[in-house]
Amino acid sequence: MCVRYEPPDVTEMNDWIAIGALALVGLLIPLAMMVVSYLLRPSVPETSKRATYESGEVPTGGTRIRFNIQYYMVALLFLVFDIETVLLFPWAVVYLDAVESDAVSLLEILGPMVAFVAILFVGLGWAWRNGVVQWAQTPRQVDGE
Question: Using H for helix, E for strand and C for coil, what is the string for 13-81?
Fold first, then answer.
């Protein structure tokens, strides 16, 4: 049995060389920036530089404290509904042509969008029910609990 050797296609090899060069540049630039910053930075060996807070404030109390996570929950809800608007506007623009063309039914056009918005409404209802969107309680709400 004789196996014939075929050299690789030159254009295929050039693509891989370009990808390898890009990966090498992507690694070398951050490494070079770190080396240059290490060489150029000022070195001031003070004990206050090794402190937890570099501002000169003496830390008091423990580091394990309880804090209200409501700020983070509001930020997460903002991100979710911000992404919703980012997805709905282009969707409406793209599907405008589909509605005018009569190639697909209205259910095929609006079905995924309605399902997406319905899932978001269920999430908003859950967040509302659990008090995530309630920023502050009024005295009447505090007395009622």
Answer: HHHHHHHHHHHHHHHHHHHHHHHHHHHHCCCCCCCHHHCCCCCCCCCCCCCCCCCCCHHHHHHHHHHHH
Q: Considering only 54-58, 79-83, 104-108, which range has the smallest mean pLDDT?
A: 54-58
Domain extent, residue 129, equals 70-144
With a cut of 60, say whether residue 145 has pLDDT above it.
no
Residue 41 has phi, psi (to 5 degrees) of -70, 150
> In this structure, is residue 108 part of a structural domain?
yes
Taking the mean position of all CA atoms in its chain, how far away is CA 100?
Answer: 35
CA 53, CA 18: separation in Å to the nearest integer?
46
Torsion sign across C-alpha atoms 75, 79, 84, 85: positive
Percent of residues, the chain, with pLDDT higher than 70:
75
Is the separation of the CB atoms in 77 and 128 below 8 Å?
no
Please check whether residues 31 and 79 belong to one and the same domain.
Answer: no
pTM above 0.70, yes or no: no
